[in-house]
Amino acid sequence: MGWTASLDMGSEKMVMALASGEGSVCYLKGIKIMASQGVEHGVIKDKEKVRMCIRSLMSELMKDREIEVMNVALSGAVLRIVERRIVVPIQKKVVEQSDLFRAEQRCIDAYGGGQDEVVDILPVGYAIDRGEMIADPLGRSGRNLEVTYQVYLADYDYLADIQGLFEGSGIQEIEFYPAVRAYAEALDVERAERDFALVDLGAMGVNVVLFRDGMLEYEAHLPIGVRTIDTDTMAAFALSFGQARKLKHEYGQALRSICKNKKLPIPDTRLTLESRDLATVIQSRCEELLEGVIFQLQQWGFDDVEDPVLLTGGGSRLQDVDELLRRMSGHPVESAAARRIQAPREEVLRTPEYLVALGLLLCARQEPKETPNGIGEKIVRRIGKIFGI
């Protein structure tokens, strides 16, 4: 039985998960969350503090277990994303898997050398002989295959620093992925029945992703997150940061109109404030954050009101934020839940802080195999390292 672990290092929370795999089934064996230290805006600032967090999580999850691979999510702050268009001749007049491998390899080779390392590449569109963009080219006839890729690059030294945090742990391999890869795996995008958008409400930023026709189409990172609600509450009521956070977590609502007015105790004092006053402050900031999300989705042409928006991230726990987004966007709004994972409790798969760590478990790399089309094992292995296949 092979063990796979994953790590999502956020600015506020650090999550580690452990799973075993048998065939195509992934069994969740444990997942832990703790307050993050040494990470600011998704970037490691204090390696020793991060190392201590990692060791603490590992000591709880991985006793006497040999971990084959640790999949680590990289934030948008450390990734450079570029778009690359690759054209390859279709060898047998009909697009086969070998044509896709050659296109992928050519894209990878285009970024060899230098300080940047290719972390991942994701196809965002295909075309045959400069025709219309399609989602699945396999079996299509033509002379040339054109693939547009989203390429994720990271500084080689930064990746080496993260690998050094696991020195002496006994983990055989450390692999890196962008969060969007984890989203796609967790939500089983290829089998999605409808196009959908994902909104990850994080402390320091909001990720907005559009999946269409079973593949990634667009993604964006908005650099203002739900922590601004805490700072607004501090300023509005002359509170400390800790008091503001407690009020948000215990009593915060994103819709003043459905908030029942009552006196709320201010933590660590004998004072109170009106619940509707707190809701007014929270709704004002939430509307600003969600307006940025909606503008981005409109720019991308996400205009079929039957297509859903999935919410995740710690900010999605805020009461009524889903209803506010539904009213503002006109789309059905649902909570994101991980699929393709067997867990002891169903609610674990719906915990918003866990989605990335759960998706990373499904990125586990399998042993490369010779393809029936004769593509060399060396090429498959190199692609496999990037794609988790």
Report on the structure:
By secondary structure, this protein is an alpha/beta fold. 32% of the residues lie in helices and 31% in strands. The strands form 5 sheets. A 6-stranded mixed sheet has the order 10-6-1-2-3-18, with helices on both faces. Strands 13-12-11-16-17 form a 5-stranded mixed sheet, sandwiched between helices. Strand 2 and strand 3 (25-35) form a beta hairpin. It is globular. The model is unreliable at 365-389 (pLDDT under 50).
Between the first and last Cα atoms, what is the distance in angstroms? 18 Å
Number of strands: 18
Structural class: alpha/beta
Low-confidence runs of at least 5 consecutive residues: 365-389
Give the gist of this structure.
With 389 residues, the chain is an alpha/beta fold.
Give the tags:
389 residues, globular, six-stranded mixed beta sheet, alpha/beta, single chain, 32% helix, 11 helices
Write the layout of secondary structure elements.
Blueprint: E1 2-9, E2 13-22, E3 25-35, E4 39-40, E5 43-44, H1 47-61, E6 67-74, E7 79-89, H2 97-109, E8 116-128, E9 144-155, H3 156-164, E10 173-178, H4 179-186, E11 196-201, E12 206-212, E13 215-222, H5 227-237, H6 241-251, E14 263-265, E15 272-274, H7 275-299, E16 309-312, H8 321-329, E17 333-335, E18 341-342, H9 346-349, H10 355-361, H11 377-387
Parallel strand pairs: 1-6, 3-18, 6-10, 11-16, 16-17
Antiparallel strand pairs: 1-2, 2-3, 4-5, 7-9, 8-9, 11-12, 12-13, 14-15
